[in-house]
Amino acid sequence: MIYITQLIYIHEGQEHTFHQFEDVAIPLIAKYNGKLLLRLRPSAGQYIAGELEIPYEVHLVSFPGEEEFNAFKLDKEREKFLHLKDAAVKKMLLVQGSAL
User: Fold this and answer.
1) Alpha helix (H) residue ranges in the chain
2) Residue 12's CATH number
3) Which helix (H) or strand (E) holds 92?
4) Range of the domain at 28
5) Exposed, middle or buried: residue 25 (CB in 10 Å: 0-12, 13-18, 19+)?
């Protein structure tokens, strides 16, 4: 089992565009036996300390293995909508790991 954590930073005013991409991408996770474990939208009041700026969203996703994660990333339906992601996302920090 692998776990993917994403800190997602979007361009100001591109929230709707980002949501359009997510409306397509998130349901596809299950197609590859993945699970969306958490989807958070943190606010300044929840921020305690750190050197990173507050992301627009934080996702925690699991896949049975690297093969399923890579298949999800290469999904043809998802690829049709990558222009929305590219337009909306300023930067993304992806952390991959496993449970200890």
Assistant:
1) 15-31, 66-73, 76-79, 82-88
2) 3.30.70.100
3) strand 89-97
4) 2-49+56-97
5) buried
What span, in angstroms and rounded, lies between the C-alpha atoms of 83 and 96?
A: 24
Residues 55-88 have pLDDT tens digits of: 999 999 999 999 999 999 999 999 999 999 999 9
Question: Does the CA dihedral 10-7-38-72 come out positive or negative?
Answer: positive
Distances (CA, A) of 98 to 2, 37, 66: 5, 14, 11
What is the tally of structural domains in the chain? 1
Cβ contacts of residue 13 below 8 Å, gap of 6+?
none
Instruction: Say how far apart CA 68 and CA 88 lie, in whole Å.
Output: 25
- Percent of the chain topping pLDDT 90: 89
